[in-house]
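quick one, 174 residues, struct below
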Amino acid sequence: LAVAASIALAAMAAHALDAFPGAKAVAFDGKRLQQAAQGGTPVEAWREFVPSGEPIARWTRLASIREYPTHADPMVLATGLLRALRQQNPDAPSSIIRNPSTGEVIVDFITWPSDRSFTEFNLFRYGRREGGGVVAQQYALRHYGDATEFLRGLKAERTRLVELMAKEGLKTAP
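---
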């Protein structure tokens, strides 16, 4: 974990995190995901993206862009997410990496519902938004049913995905 954290910190860009206004598709890890849902609350606006043809109700890969126009500190949002995760699922493994020079924060965790019908790996990158506020870019993998093989494969995959999120983040896709 320490090696991944060092690499991720070195890779984080020193500019504002992009919210890609108007983008109908994003890419991450060589996968194109198209917008499938959007919504918001008084403090958060979000857009979710899944692979073409995959229903949002049963996704296997998901990207999201979450905008928090009234927040100024990415770390506050990241620690709030982990606090909510621990309340809902105290056994969920998680990590947090902060780049002190940019203020960006990467959070990753594994979680599951009480019936264990699926297991998710979530990866969030929080950063300041140009013009104010905070943006979170999320990428998640979900496996339905027995998660043994999914979790075994995730051991190696996790480091690569954290590094990729730190270095490149989500990108717009045609």
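The helical segments are 2-11, 74-88, 148-167.
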